[in-house]
Amino acid sequence: MEYVSPEGLRLDGRRPMEMRQLRAELGAVSRADGSAVFEMGNTKVIAAVYGPREVQNRSQQMNDKALIRCEYTMANFSTGDRMRKPKGDRRSTEISLVIRQTMEACIMTHLMPRSQIDIFVQVLQADGGTRSACINAATLALADAGIPMNDLVTSCSAGYLNSTPLLDLNYVEDSAGGPDVTVGILPKLDKVTLLQMDAKLPMDIFENVMQLATDGCKAVANYIREVLTENTKQLENRKGQNRFG
Predict the structure, then answer these.
(1) Which residue of 1, 53, 220, 230 is most buried, as measured by CB atoms within 10 A?
(2) How many Cβ atoms from other residues are within 10 Å of residue 214's Cβ?
């Protein structure tokens, strides 16, 4: 299968180093403390954050920091595949854990002792890169909820097909079974909080693919900052209108 044409174009018309279109929207779930929809190409994810609030299960309460809980699910209609696994399957449990650990790296949990923060993430449409899209949606939802974070955590993947490093794989590329690296970073602190890899790669190629994914994370961070800045402006305008309206 030819994933990169002789002209250097991928199946969806992108160049190897090109990301899919990003789209985001804040406040999608009115009852949540913070929420966001995040799209990377045709992959669409919604995240909702509740908290900080009282710990429901007292035995889990921590006196020095907040308890972070995370639940990842895939909507039955997200893949168009009727054979969906039941809730609580191994992959969902593993991705819930990955998202939780990644978020714990950026949330200032020590500022909210004896409380809990719940993060719910659901994939509405899956077309590759769902893990990264979930992390980006959760970051936006946490920011929307006003949860203190030491940095925004952003994520992107890159792969290696037809001897070419490719940024932000879609489902067809992702399913090709080639090496695939998912990275999560704290862009300001320049720290990697997540690194997952399927299949092996020679060290020099791995470094290229990892660098490509990291650049993708930084591009996502710039976009997320724009979304948050724009949202703040809109809120200030609304406040101004209410004051004089």
Answers:
(1) 220
(2) 21
